## 1
Amino acid sequence: MPINSNKFSADVVCKILSNSGLISEGQKKEILLKKEPLKRKMEKARAMKQPSSKQRFQTSISIVDVITALNLERADNPSNVLDEETIYQALAKGWKIPFKKIDPLKLDLNLVTTTIPHTFAMNHMTVPLEKKDGYLIVATINPFNREVMQDIAQASHLKVRPVLSTRTDILKLINEFFGFKRSITAAENEFSGPTIDLGNLEQFVRLRSAEEMPSSTDQHIVNAVEHLFSSAFDQRASDVHIEPKRDKSIVRLRIDGALHTVYELPKNVHSAIISRVKNLARLDMAEKRRPQDGRIKMEKEGIEAEIRVSSIPVAFGEKLVMRIMDPDVLFQDLENLGFTSMDLVRYHQFINMPHGIVLVCGPTGSGKSTTLYSTLRYLSSPDINITTVEDPIEMIHEDFNQISVQPVVGITFASILRNILRQDPDIIMLGEMRDLETAENAVQAALTGHLVLSTLHTNDAPSTITRLLDLGTPSFLIQATLVGIIAQRLVRKICPHCKEPFEIKGSELTSLGLDLGADDEMELHRGKGCFKCRNTGYLGRCGIYEVLPITEAIKKNIVPEADSVTVRDIARREGMITMCENAVQHLLEGVTTYEEFLRVTLEQL
Ligand SMILES: [Zn+2]
């Protein structure tokens, strides 16, 4: 392979890097001295890594691979390592060729996989990305290989415009797209159905890393589903939708709140994929007309995650939605949830009570599950029996005894609650207090010496008291058992990779409905948008809270004619920080933006 054509020689590459200030003279010498022996070593290692499969690829080790492997300090910024992407970016500049960071979500599976064969793409680390202005844009690690570009031009009947990308990006794209395509095509051709395999409560699926994606073409559907999960993980997707249409099936991923169509599948593969996922989730494979729910436990690179699967019949077949429950999100240290230090102290006081009721409030999607699960994990210890009653169980944790509500067969919150009291629990988590019977049972449990955690769909902490009274819970029982209430919302956090300060006039904010009591210029933050956050400027979310302890003064106001305004006033006099105030703190500390502040506060505070 002519990868060492002149422009790609070690001398030229080193010269560009040193002209860009990335390497010193000493490092240049080190590279030239070590490159040959290191290259031989890496070639051996790469050959070992390739299994004895029929498909052997002949990508050679380039000078960039060698320099990357040396893990050099950047001469212009010694606290950073000279990585592959920085090198390619510098080379692109030096060669006056565009550098392209590959975003698989923006690509067309068919274009990528049908223009050139898989082996050709692998051997030359070259892959077509898109058609643009009559040109075929091709990502490559070596734009000077004229034969390769000519071959692609001939195959596609298009003029080729090469762009430089990293080997890592290209390899990942090839593995993901060709792997998926191969599985789908093979499945389409010689259909092999999934095998029935009833395992434990949870099926355990280990995802292969990109390097060890199988090349054999058996178990196509199994592989295709693995590819799906794998790309969902890689893209930080929260949901995967597989939707049947009249003559095809589409796969969409939800990333940071927005849906992206990633694949179109042949219609005849659709039901096989659905069956495979239903099998993994232990759903009834024969039942196609009624909605079903299940779960799959997965592991990828040592991280365990749970996937909640829901199937529902739609006009053209079964639609499947898989929600990826990330344990890093659901189980957090209480310190990281977003409480102020004062609120955290108060919350600790609530949950360290031997008995009583602690309520977490907010609408759907406000992060209540994360707060409850994180709390239970914090409280769990071998000498404590934690029992949860949920609808449905969001995430299985082996330290808890989790019971799922099944109203169809008469297993309700209330009926389970009556029974679990005989199971000697210390702490009970009730998914939701939705009716009087459940509330009464929760009160009973608290009165008999249990700590009960639950949720209510109320907008703020004070109105939770009136909601409990509205349900019909006697006020003296609320007084006797309620320990504290927290209300919460989630705000999107500014992406740390592209965060920047900017000046804005206080008066301008006031006109938007955000009165911070200052008219002058003030400094806030925002995300410029970068690759890591998909140009949204946001990455991750955190809670804003309102923590209300049930003090003596509050208790006196838990009366049948109680109104939440009075309760709120007392609570604020006693030091409660409202959600709105907490949001302002997040804004001023540069955690979130004023747009995000306005979104959550105007919505329902
Ligand atoms: Zn960003």
## 2
Amino acid sequence: MNGTTIPPQPRPEPAPHPSGDPRFASLDATLDRYHYEPTALIQILHAAQQLFGYLRADVLHYVAAKLRLPIAQVYGVVTFYHLFTTKPRGKHQILVCTGTACHVRGSKLIFERLQQQLGVAEGESTKDGLFSVHQARCIGACALAPAIAVGDDVYGKLSPDKIANFIKKDLKKYT
Ligand code: FES
């Protein structure tokens, strides 16, 4: 042993994403900030979702490759945490409260009726991209249970039979 040590090599500049989408450059900056550390996966996914609006398959593959993680592991984290979505969210998110007060007053049926009448499943957005439907724990309007929130607006004392009118009248103002 002659005691010579090899100095750490600088990490090569990440190659730009072939799509040319500048958001990947921002994602690269985030990956760099976290030193491509797999333990920072949640923070990196969170940043990716903010950049792209939702976690597209190609974005997840990109993150997995950069962190040298199996794609199944990345998908596992995304599906485990409710805050992540792999579907584009609507411009306006309709939150159906499924907290205890709302649940006992039938929020499940309201949630189902809303999905049926808007023609979307949970987390999906309507064809015009305006609305997506989500469940929420408690939106702080228990006295109005069962309640729905759209942005800062709260609609309370709902029932499945009132949903058609809610879509026709109340949702109109967001279009
Ligand atoms: S439980 Fe629905 S608003 Fe609180």
